[in-house]
Design a protein that fits this description.
Length: 1482
């Protein structure tokens, strides 16, 4: 209301203002029940609301208070008042685009950070309608400022009707709620100076009370105090005469007569708009569009509503009303100003309407020029003679009021309320120039919401305003202006200083206007003056207002009871006979109502993709049409057709960018009004759009309406990309040995190991081992034989008898048991793979020994696999020499290689050493008996896939006691195979996983032809600890992906600027997005991530002993995350980082690129989708080049740039674009270089990463690739190249030579690439000069370090302090050359050699230059010491000083001359280099 207590000063906060008794009375009442406070303007209603809010904050700590005011200006004013007392107050209005706040978390964040929200009612209604706010759970108090608006379809009333009354009744108004949040009706507090607009007082009061579920209250106990503080103005009226009639008032107005002559001569049939409609209609085939155009033509002719005819007619009508009301001088002035502004601007409405046809513009301007304007005279007598009697009376009244104020020693301040905005302008003009008003400093206030002017010709009058409204108000408050001429905008709520005089130029339209305007005069001894027409009915109207006010006071004083029932369910007006129309989305609470449908549908169409040549809006066709088809062609006598009275139907047609089935909607002809038909058809269309998936569950358009499935992507694009690595639950790595079905087939594959003196090994599996290429077969590195190749014979299906199956199972167990039996169960024989040694010559010997061992134990157990050496020799009567492995003790004692027997007696000392060995400590009275066993340790190597060097070193021999030693009953061939089988299995498993990936993921060429070694590398994670993993390939793939994404985005979105492109690229390549695509394709199945540890080898079995469990059910932690590929046992579920999933995607793209270049890389990326419509790079380049015009030649400066680059552009405009800065004002053929720089940045990264990856003789790890790439693509180095690249140009000048002859004096100038930038900025010019000066100082040091030094010159490059535009220039030129060469990478590489970038990189690699950044080196060193460096900056004597401290070390400082943020970087680098030297950091 803007009515803080009159005595409060501008510096007083709400908390400091004394609360008066009548205010406390109203506060107490508001705590007991819902009330509407009805008090005069200036009585302190806002103060009561602030006190009420403070109490509500304590009573409802989990809910907010929501304050609503009808205008943005009033919202801002009330926010300022409330904020002084409450603190955390949020303001939401239309300018903040709350309809675009489509993330529910955004609304929750706003509510969590503010205890009070101030907004217009429409903002809250929209938030409730779209389900972003829960009225019952999130709002504890609703405050309606200017509560009398809560009627009919006003947003205030819709909030109550559609949401409030649907909630449970509040349990108590007094109890504090610090427990669980209850969903219930919030408390209501209304504020108004007049609870009614007019009519029956009792009915109006009861209606408002029912609508707001409240009781209207006014102070009763302390009414006298209220009267003492509220200063009712003295009501006076003045009388004026109207000496002319409406039809004759303009006779003396020359400009009006000229305007009238033009207006009367206009023929609608000659209007270019009508002519164009007729021409268009003649060419249009039958159909809805023709019908619509026919109606448009008929209505235009009937109403003469073309822009020109309506505009001049509106000017005519407005000027006539001004003339009648203010006099001919005001009319002449108004016509002159409008016509002058229109002609001066040529097309004053171009920012209001769509593009006009040139003929139509010419037609309007021609008619305006035909108006014979007579310049108004500003002579005093001319003005005075040309004003109305009403205006003379006003001048007299102003003089009297000013004299009255001065007689009371008070400055005059007044407001004149005028109904029409044009009359405000004309009246203000008269007052500014009339001599009798010279003592008044006049300003004017106009409303901004008169929508009827927005697309009308007279909207040009907005430009007549010389001062913004906020400045006018500020001048009025400060006294700079003492008289304001205003429309109703100043009546309601605005914080206008209490003035001494209010004059109503026009009689108030209703009771609210009467009360509000009168309330502006609230200074003591103020006056309220109404102007009555002599002999008119105005006095009777005022008497009616005074009587209504008496009745209102009587209603206040009467004992009023609360409304006990809510208002009945409401329908839009004239829809009462139809069923309620509303739709609610249960998941969000979003509500679609009949009243909101039209605005929702308009909003939906407005956000459809469009170009500047089109604008989208729904088209409504009423049924039946307003006029018969062809009405415009009828004779005038036939055109008199009575108006159709209903019922009506309607068809709405949506823009053509939507699918046909979602474009046209109709409702039957059954509605009593056109408005009703409009609302119903809009409701039907909007509901269908929701059902079709083009609206989200908040009933708002998707961000990308044509592709609804992309809503989440595009929404995320507008946010910062999540950089943190997350975790996701997935099923374990694919087990290649387990069959997919229940088939019983066994597949037999023969394995031959090169150089192994052993028979062939047959592998039996339940899955067929696919044909493997030579590069996929296992290669072993034997400790004695070196590199050994393994070959396979193509597998075949075999039928195993039970006897064969048992024999194979026992053979497999035998091979595995000795080295791996500690992790096996002897009784488990259901191996997923089995091994049989074919034609082992020692089979019979070892079979008999095993049979003997089984008889000794009388059962089949692990004891039959390992026998006591002493018992064995005693039973067999000899000491065998064909033994292989021996154990030092039972229960998986140390496994040793048998060497022979020792028969010679040992010394006592040697025997004692044997007896006291730890392995025999558990035995009593250990006796040394002969012969002794001679054994040696087995080679330490267990992983035969690692290429380690061979060794012939002999092992130390051990002497063992046979009594306590055991023989492993394995033949030499079995022992040999037993060691290498796990390595063979690992390699075969890897090959089978990769083969599965190829078959399922890459089923068709060309991706299917990616070599297996590359695919294996791409899916092998570092955690597997294999000899090679994907890390290097991922680094390359990352660069490939970013580059091909950048090229595709450039081609797909030609109108996007670099900021949008970067955001979209970051979204596409984000780990979270790549991981999501990897999960979609189940990439996790093929990621080789199980660590191969042969010493911990355990065979794979066909059956799983564990009972299946649901992965989500964790007794320790409640984890609701769904397992991808679920339905597995608990052991099959693992947590996998999203980074690993993303890395594999990039590695696969890198593998595709290495094998097939960018085309195959794009094909691989296309497989993963990533939300892009992928195209090959040639297609993208072709699309981009198709938009490049072939411009004329370029300037000599740009030709010099071509010579520096060593490249001549075929499309010169690409060069122009690459060298054009955004500040450039003289180059209008292209956009600035930012898009080209975006492309060049990705391209440069790609080429450098590829160069480092493929450099001969180097196998850089990812970290090394990163630091080397950082050295040559950072802004400092690129800026150096930009300045260093230069050219000598001829600058010879003529001079006077011998004998007076003119000769040319040879001279050259060096032009630098950085000087070729096209711009119009003096700042850039200054930066170029300063940077070049610094370059001259450090050039020698940088060049020497780059060509001869062993350390990269980081600090020296930083001293250039070059602006980023220098490096941008290099990148944009790289992008331009790439496009102009039609995507030729070799051409771009030649450019980089010419610029020197690849030259320096090559030298860095060849000479192993140290490129580690000094700051990074210091951090790495400190982290090894488990410490961290601390950097502090100070400024002294024009320098930036950086001081580095590390615990345990002395401080190190360095400085740089202060020149902005770059100086801080320079000081930091210098200090880091100094610290490295002082602290001897390695």
């Amino acid at each position: 209301m803007g009515d803080a207590p009159p005595e409060s000063t501008p510096h007083e906060t709400a908390a400091e203002v004394t609360t008066r008794s009548y205010q406390q009375e109203m506060l107490d009442a508001s705590l007991a029940e819902n009330i509407v406070i009805a008090q005069d303007t200036g009585s302190g209603k806002t103060h009561i609301s602030v006190l009420r809010i403070k109490i509500e904050c304590d009573r409802e700590p989990h809910k907010v208070s929501w304050f609503m005011a009808p205008t943005v200006a009033l919202c801002e004013q009330q926010r300022d008042v409330i904020q002084k007392a409450i603190g955390s107050v949020g303001l939401i209005h239309g300018a903040l685009e709350p309809k675009q706040w489509k993330d529910p978390n955004l609304w929750r964040d706003v509510l969590s950070k503010n205890r009070v929200i101030v907004s217009t009612p429409q903002v809250l209604l929209d938030a409730l309608s779209h389900g972003y706010i829960n009225l019952g759970r999130e709002i504890g108090l609703l405050i309606f400022d200017e509560a009398h608006h809560a009627n009919d379809d006003h947003p205030m009333n819709c909030i109550m009707r559609n949401f409030y009354f649907r909630l449970p009744i509040r349990s108590s108004t007094r109890v504090n709620n610090h427990g669980p949040v209850r969903e219930e009706r919030p408390m209501i507090l209304g504020l108004t100076a007049s609870p009614m607009f007019g009519g029956n007082t009792a009915v109006a009061f009861r209606t408002l009370e029912m609508n707001l579920d409240s009781v209207i209250r006014s102070p009763r106990q302390h009414r006298d105090q209220l009267a003492a503080f509220v200063h009712r103005p003295e009501f006076r009226h003045v009388l004026y005469s109207v000496p002319w009639t409406y039809s004759t008032c303009h006779v003396t107005s020359k400009n009006f007569q000229a305007l009238k002559a033009v207006e009367e001569s206009m023929d609608i049939e000659r209007d270019p708009y009508v002519l164009s409609l007729r021409e268009e209609l003649s060419k249009m085939p039958p159909g809805p569009d023709r019908t619509r155009l026919d109606q448009k033509l008929s209505k235009t002719i009937l109403k003469k509503s073309s822009y020109t005819h309506k505009g001049i007619r509106d000017l005519f009508t407005t000027a006539q009303e001004i003339c009648f009301d203010l006099g001919p001088w005001a009319a002449d002035w108004y016509i002159q100003r409008v016509v002058e502004m229109a002609i001066k601007n040529a097309s004053p409405y171009s920012n209001i309407t769509t593009a006009w046809q040139s003929k139509e513009k010419a037609y309007l301007i021609a008619h305006l020029k035909r108006i014979d304007i007579t310049a108004v005279s500003y002579e005093a007598h001319s003005i005075d003679e040309g004003i109305s009697d009403k205006l003379r009376v006003l001048l007299g009244t102003l003089e009297e009021e000013k004299a009255r104020a001065e007689s009371m020693n008070e400055p005059y301040s007044g407001i004149i309320f005028v109904t029409r905005r044009d009359a405000v302008l004309a009246l203000a003009a008269v007052l500014q120039h009339h001599p009798r008003a010279k003592d008044f400093r006049v300003g004017y206030l106009l409303g901004t919401s008169e929508s009827s002017y927005r697309t009308a010709f007279l909207d040009i009058t907005r430009k007549i305003l010389l001062q913004p409204p906020n400045e006018t108000l500020a001048d009025f408050r400060s006294g700079e202006k003492n008289l304001i001429v205003a429309t109703a905008v100043a009546e309601e709520g605005l914080d206008i200083q209490a003035c001494g005089n209010v004059i109503r130029w026009d009689i108030p339209n209703n009771m609210v206007s009467w009360a509000q305007s009168r309330g502006r005069a609230r200074r003591k001894r103020s006056s309220f003056v109404l102007m009555f027409e002599r002999g008119g009915m105005d006095g009777a109207c005022i008497a009616q207002f005074e009587q209504l006010e008496k009745e209102m006071v009587a209603q206040y004083n009467a004992e009023r009871t609360a409304v006990t029932r809510p208002p009945p369910p409401s329908q839009a007006e004239d829809d009462v006979e139809f069923e309620p129309c509303e739709f609610k989305v249960e998941s969000t609470g979003a509500l679609l109502t009949l009243q909101a449908a039209v605005s929702h549908l308009n909003h939906f169409c407005s956000v459809l993709p469009h170009s500047r040549h089109t604008s989208h809006a729904p088209l409504y066709d009423i049924d039946p049409p307003d006029l018969p088809e062809g009405w415009h062609a009828l004779e005038e006598t036939q055109q008199c057709i009575p108006a159709y009275q209903g019922p009506f139907g309607c068809t709405v047609t949506l823009p053509k960018v939507l699918p046909l089935e979602l474009r046209v909607y109709s409702v039957e002809r059954k509605y009593p009004s056109k408005r009703s038909a409009y609302h119903h058809v809009a409701f039907k269309a909007y509901l269908d759009l929701y059902k079709a998936g083009l609206l989200n569950d908040h009933l708002l358009p998707l961000t990308s309406v044509i592709e609804p499935e992309l809503e989440e992507e595009v929404k995320n694009m507008l946010q910062d990309i999540e950089k943190r690595d997350g975790m996701t639950s997935v099923t374990s790595q694919m087990n290649a040995w387990l069959p997919s079905g229940d088939e019983e087939t066994w597949w037999s594959t023969d394995i031959a190991v090169e150089g192994l003196q052993a028979p062939l090994l047959t592998l039996l599996t339940r899955v067929k081992i696919p044909a493997l290429g030579a590069e996929e077969l296992p290669v072993l590195y034997h400790p004695r034989r070196g590199r050994v190749e393994v070959t396979l014979r193509q597998g075949k299906a075999v039928l195993l008898s039970q006897e064969d199956l048992t024999a194979a199972q026992e053979s497999t167990r035998r091979l595995f048991w000795s080295p791996y039996g500690s992790r096996m169960q002897w009784s488990r024989l259901d191996f997923a793979y089995m091994f049989v040694i074919n034609a082992d010559p020692d089979t019979d010997t070892w079979l008999s020994r095993r049979n003997w061992a089984t008889k000794q134990d009388e059962r089949d157990s692990e004891r039959s696999h390992s026998v006591n050496a002493q018992a064995f020799t005693e039973a067999n009567g000899h000491y065998p020499t064909d033994l292989t492995w021996v154990r030092d003790g039972r229960s998986f004692g140390k496994l040793l290689r048998f060497v022979g027997w020792h028969h010679q007696k040992l010394t006592k000392e040697e025997e004692e050493e044997i007896r006291t060995r730890p392995s025999y400590s558990r035995f009593e009275e250990v006796q040394v008996t002969y012969p002794l066993l001679i054994a040696e340790r087995l080679p330490s190597r267990a992983n035969f896939l690692l290429p380690l060097p061979t060794s012939n070193a002999t092992q130390d021999q051990l002497l063992l006691l046979p009594k306590y030693s055991y023989f492993e009953l394995l033949s030499p061939a079995e022992c040999e195979y037993s060691q290498i089988i796990p390595s063979i299995l690992r390699r075969l498993e890897t090959a089978m996983i990769v083969k599965s990936l190829r078959i399922i993921l890459f089923p068709r060429a060309p991706l299917a032809k990616i070599p297996s070694p590359l695919l294996t590398l791409a899916v092998t994670a570092p955690v597997a600890e294999d000899p090679m993993n994907y890390e290097r390939l991922e680094s390359l793939g990352d660069a490939v992906l970013k580059f091909i994404v950048a090229v595709n985005l450039m081609a797909t979105y030609p109108l996007w600027h670099e900021g949008y492109l970067t955001r979209r690229k970051d979204h596409v390549v984000a780990n979270s997005r790549l991981a999501k695509e990897a999960i979609r394709l189940s990439i996790f199945r093929w990621i080789i991530r199980t660590r191969f540890s042969p010493r911990r080898f355990k065979p794979v079995y066909l059956s799983t002993p564990e009972e299946p469990v649901v992965a989500q059910e964790d007794p320790v932690e409640n984890n609701d995350e769904q397992v991808v590929g679920g339905g597995k046992t608990r052991k099959d579920v693992e947590q996998l980082s999203t980074k690993m999933l993303a890395d594999v995607v990039e590695s696969l793209i890198g593998a595709a690129y290495l094998h097939g270049g960018f085309d195959l890389g794009v094909s691989c990326a296309q497989l993963f989708g990533m939300g892009l419509d992928w195209r090959t790079l040639p297609e993208c380049v072709s699309m981009m080049l198709s938009r490049v015009e072939h411009g004329d030649g370029v300037s000599a400066q740009l030709e010099n740039a071509e010579r520096m680059l060593g490249y001549t552009f075929r499309r010169k405009l690409l060069l122009v674009e690459a060298l054009t800065h955004a500040s450039c004002q003289y180059e209008d053929r292209t956009i600035s270089y930012e898009r080209m720089e975006f492309l060049g940045d990705a391209l440069l990264d790609m080429i450098v990463a590829d160069f480092l990856y493929k450099y001969p003789g180097k196998t850089y790890a990812p970290y090394d690739i990163h630091i080397h790439k950082s050295a040559v693509v950072n802004t400092h180095f690129l800026a150096y190249l930009c300045i260093r690249t230069s050219l000598e140009v001829d600058a010879s000048m003529p001079k006077l030579g011998p004998r007076g002859k003119i000769v040319m004096q040879p001279k050259t100038n060096r032009i630098h690439l950085s000087q070729c930038l096209q711009h119009s900025s003096p700042t850039i010019l200054e930066d170029q000069k300063l940077t070049f000066d610094r370059y001259v100082k450090v050039e020698g040091k940088i060049e020497e370090a780059l060509t001869k030094g062993n350390k990269f010159p980081w600090a020296a490059l930083t001293r250039l302090q070059a602006p980023k535009l220098f490096s941008d220039l290099i990148e944009s030129l790289i992008g331009a050359v790439y496009l102009d060469s039609e995507g030729n990478m070799n051409t771009v590489k030649e450019l980089l050699w010419t610029l020197g970038l690849l030259n320096h990189l090559d030298r860095i690699i060849r000479d192993d230059v140290d490129v580690l950044h000094p700051v990074s080196r210091l951090s790495v060193w400190a982290s090894r010491l488990q410490k961290s460096p601390d950097y502090k900056y100070t400024e002294e004597k024009g320098r930036v000083v950086c001081t580095i401290t590390v615990e345990g070390k002395g401080e190190v400082s360095a400085y740089a001359e202060k020149r902005g943020h770059a100086s801080q970087d320079e000081a930091r680098f210098a200090a880091a280099e100094k610290a490295i030297s002082v602290w001897e950091v390695k």
